[in-house]
Amino acid sequence: MQRLSILTLVVLLSVTHGLGQRTNPPSRTELASITERGRRLAEYDVAAWYATDAVVAMKPAAGSVARYVCRKSDNIWIVAFGRLNETHEKFLIAYEATQGANAKAFSVKRFEPPKEDTGFFLAAARAIEVSLGDFKGVSRPYNVAVLPADSNQVYVYVIPAQTKQGIFPLGGDARYLVSADGSKIIEKRQLHNAILEFSAPPESESVQGSFHIAVIDDIPEDTDVFHVLSRRPSVPELIATKQYVFQIETDGTINYLMTWEAFKKMKHHTSIGRGRAAPRDLY
Q1: pLDDT grade, residue 3 (50/70/90)?
Q2: Is pLDDT above 60 for 73?
């Protein structure tokens, strides 16, 4: 087990300037909200994965599917595959995958002609289009997720996609708050700047946890929770911000541990298995 160097963290935090400045740690309620959105993102990702496999097996006609949108209804995920019409007034659903007895089981309905949607799936597809039009990422694949927000608005997340087995990316992501009709960006939140990659270790090596530095704001982000829930092996994540230290447990629960100043004064600092230090310009 490799001991985390406190000096490394001090250097990293001291040279990076964040955008957020808080006078108090986030409340339990705020942390619980972040956890809930992160858990929904993890569920969304699983639903998209297995629903896509089920639809691909049906060999969709070229051009019939340009986008998919997932929605949770009565504890069941429904994934609509289709495209916006030319005027962006309807979402044309060619296939609809509905979750069955478990998270990996999906049954698929084919609609010919496509089913016209003017509700959530239309708004979500529009919101994805307007968000991707604004997003400036690096040259790599990204996944997109849409979650309901207050006042019938939606959150759109743009997240780096996993491209290699055993390599789990974190960072380089953004969250958009988009109007109820999906046409206007209300707010953009850059969650992290550059991208870290968590590598699954050899089977002979024991991993007890991981850590990263986050200084855009003094709180963990929704995608930090998503990362912990999605990666393997499943281990906690220690997050140090400019002022505070948090730990995300393997079930997505976020615990506020202490201030950064208190952490520096501890005689025996937390040891992290395969702890990784971020480049100074990462977050």
Answers
A1: very low
A2: yes
Count up the domains in the chain and report the number: 1
Distance CA 225, CA 74 (A): 23
Is residue 216 situated within a structural domain? no
28 vs 32: CA distance, rounded Å: 6
Residue type for position 93 = I
Within-domain flag for 35: no
Query: Does residue 146 contact residue 173 with C-beta atoms inside 8 Å?
Result: no
Domain membership flag for residue 89: yes
Residue carrying structure tokens 């991993």: 207
Report the chain's mean pLDDT, rounded to a whole number: 87
pLDDT (tens digit per residue) in 130-142: 999 999 999 999 9
Q: Which long-range contacts (CB under 8 A, 24 or more apart) does 106-109 make?
A: 106/47, 106/50, 106/51, 106/53, 106/54, 106/79, 107/54, 108/51, 108/54, 108/55, 108/58
Q: How far is CA 156 from CA 27, 28, 30, 261, in A?
A: 24, 24, 19, 35
Cα diameter, the chain: 68
**Residue recorded with tokens 């599917």:** 65
Tell me the pLDDT tens digit for each residue of 76-109.
999 999 999 999 999 999 999 999 999 999 999 9
Report d(CA 71, CA 123) in Å as an integer: 12
Q: Is the pLDDT of residue 9 over 50?
A: no
How far apart (Å, rounded) are the C-alpha atoms in residues 70 and 81?
Answer: 9
- Domain presence at residue 128: no
**pTM for this prediction:** 0.87
Residue 84 sits in which domain range?
46-118
Specify whether the CB–CB gap between 129 and 84 falls below 8 A: yes
Please name the residues in contact with 220: beta carbons below 8 A apart, sequence gap of 6 or more. 31, 34, 214, 239, 246, 248, 254
CB 238 within 8 A of CB 210: yes
